[in-house]
Amino acid sequence: MKTKSSAEPLIKQEGQELIFDNLTNPRVVSEFIDILNITLNSNNKNLILNFKNTKAAFPNISVPMAGIIENMIGKGITFEFYYLTEYLKKLSIKSPLRVQENKKLAQKASLDKIWRFDSADDIYLLINSFVDELSQIIVCEKGVLEGFEWSINEVLDNVLQHSSRSYGYVMGQVHPKTKHFVFCVYDTGQGIYNSLLTSSVHKPKNPVEALKLAVKEGVTRDKKIGQGNGLWGLHQIVSENTGILNIISNSASYNLTNNKFKTYDRIPQLPYDNGCIVDFQIDYSKEISISKALGGYEPVNLKMESLEDNIGNINIDLQSKESGVGTRKSGEKIRNELINIYKQTNKNITLDFTGVNIVSSSFADELIGKLVTNFGFYGFNNIFKLKNMNPSVQSIVQRSVAQRMMESFNGKKEDQLDDTSSDSD
Ligand SMILES: Nc1ncnc2c1ncn2[C@@H]1O[C@H](COP(=O)(O)OP(=O)(O)OP(=O)(O)O)[C@@H](O)[C@H]1O
Ligand SMILES: [Mg+2]
Questions:
Q1: Can you give the pLDDT at residue 425?
Q2: Mean pLDDT within 63-90
Q3: What is the span of the domain harbouring residue 369?
Q4: Which residue, 98, 120, 354, 424, has fewest beta-carbon neighbours within 10 Å?
Q5: CA 187, 192, 194, 200: dihedral to nearest 10 degrees?
Q6: Residue 203: inside a domain
Q7: What pTM was computed for the model?
């Protein structure tokens, strides 16, 4: 396959029309800013954005693009969108979703969407939704969900605390093939350099210095407001996971990959609203020791605590699960959630079937059948307790588990198993 030379532009420009082949290379954002700078100084301030060829979109490109577009509209540039693919429509790249107007959607499907948050309440709702959705769709190693929750909180709060704007943008995406998830946060505020320059004792010499300072422990623009833990902690958590962190602010970028950092100092800027991009990637198949990352500090996991009874067991009330007890998808979501809870707490889990009159066989297989094969019969019995199951549900579960165990036994099917069992004596 022919690879593009670095000189060849990624955005093809034909008059006022910009054709985007991909939204996966960060260079697209830089090229877009260059074009906007020219457009701001020209008479024709109408741009056509053509996404006909755009197959994939990553958060670190889509989020800043959407934020920049929304803010440039206020500066007199108009945008027309051509050929938005279904995925780009779903992302809401044209107009980032307001949390307050889309609360239900945020709670149901928060990933693969560009959100605009305008308050601490929005941040709280979004983070809960991200953590819930992640824990239902993927199995994360110990420390990953807590590390993520801690980090995203810090980054989103920084926007409200330091950006000089009262809003920002965020999107998350899961890449199951490589077992990573990525989140990008963008604001159109003053940037890290300006924030440290104007109000701190640190007085960075240039934007790169500012980013190197910001990820150090104890560096804050104002000791009365912050402690300088946020970006340092994020850097530690990403580093403990050998993940990737990018911070781009003003004309500087800071990249951490394989625990080595690189900086760069010639990122194109707009005449105003340069803001800050924080983008990080976590390998969810790799355990994170939070207390090691945060120098002995272990955040309290309020969510896990709220599930515990007075003797420290976790109770899950199946009746309250919104996804229901009828579908394979719902069984899978609840199974992932339970495995994640177990990985986080190492505690016994009681599944309470009170009020559940009937379950589908596929739900039973996906939830109980696969948990038994995942943990093994002995492991399952040691961790899980099934409570208040009526006789009909009992027989459905019994059958699903029996089938699943037979199938998993040597990876062979029922009829093949019959053959083997007659051989073995
Ligand atoms: N989005 C942002 N816009 C502008 N400046 C920022 C932004 N995020 C961080 N900064 C700057 O980087 C500094 C370090 O951020 P960090 O989160 O590490 O510490 P803090 O927010 O000051 O304190 P803490 O996170 O412990 O409450 C901030 O004090 C601020 O000057
Ligand atoms: Mg902070």
A1: 33
A2: 94
A3: 302-417
A4: 424
A5: 130
A6: yes
A7: 0.90
